[in-house]
Specification:
This protein is an all-alpha fold. It contains 11 helices and no strands. The longest helix is centred in the first third of the chain and has 34 residues.
């Protein structure tokens, strides 16, 4: 299965982007005053919630894409998802701006951000998990690219695995921010404009290759052949 590897690499390489988008929330996480391993586990609950939301989104996207697979257009769905990732990445590299208008997005996510603000003022383990769950719903270019990758799997389970692997890949950078309480340098922030689109570009190419079924081991497996129909009306 190429899904876990691709998702993990996307998360690892896109960790800086996650830090730029979600770093402020990770820095503002409430603390119950625990130290050592308990503090590590406490901050980990936030990331568990975040990855859980990614996984649920992966299931939903994979389920929606499975309709194309059942209709015989699974490869088309994969290629289309890859092309969208490449187009989006190309526009971001050229334009250096968010493709979605911030005004409507701000209004749509207002209830989520309001609830996040409430949870950030609470000092409990349940609040930390809830912050992660809601954080995963905030619009993010990298998460959108990951969801396109999960759509290319055209399966709910594979979509979930892809998104869960993506979330795990973001852990090293995000967990370090949560524990250290430090943010990105200006140089690291400026690199985000190029790193994330380039990363989405590479993953988009991989997704297209997967849809083309070129019989390349692991990267572009051949299209499964339908099983021969059983003759249930044979001679007696």
């Amino acid at each position: 299965m190429i899904e876990p590897v691709t998702g993990l690499l996307l998360g690892l390489a896109g960790g800086l982007h996650c830090a730029g988008m979600c770093g402020p929330i990770a820095l503002a996480l409430p603390s119950t005053g625990r130290a050592g391993i308990l503090r590590f586990a406490e901050k980990g609950l936030y990331h568990v919630g975040r990855i859980a939301t990614y996984s649920i989104l992966g299931v939903l996207v994979g389920l929606g894409a499975s309709v194309f697979e059942l209709a015989g257009y699974g490869r088309v769905a994969s290629i289309t998802a890859g092309v969208l990732m490449i187009v989006t990445a190309g526009l971001q590299l050229i334009w250096h701006r968010n493709l979605l208008p911030s005004g409507p997005i701000h209004r749509i996510t207002a209830p989520i951000r309001s609830r996040l603000g409430e949870l950030l003022r609470k000092r409990s383990l349940l609040a930390l998990t809830g912050i992660g769950l809601l954080n995963g719903l905030l619009p993010c270019g990298l998460v959108t690219s990951a969801l396109l990758g999960s759509a290319a799997t055209t399966e709910p389970l594979s979509g979930m695995i892809f998104m869960a692997s993506f979330g795990v890949g973001t852990l090293p950078v995000m967990m370090s921010i949560s524990l250290s309480g430090t943010f990105l340098t200006n140089r690291m922030r400026s690199s985000l404009r190029v790193v994330m689109p380039l990363l989405a570009l590479v993953v988009g190419i991989v997704v297209i290759l997967r849809g083309l079924a070129l019989d390349i081991p692991y990267l572009s497996p051949p299209e499964p052949r339908p099983n021969a129909q059983l003759n249930c009306c044979g001679d007696h």
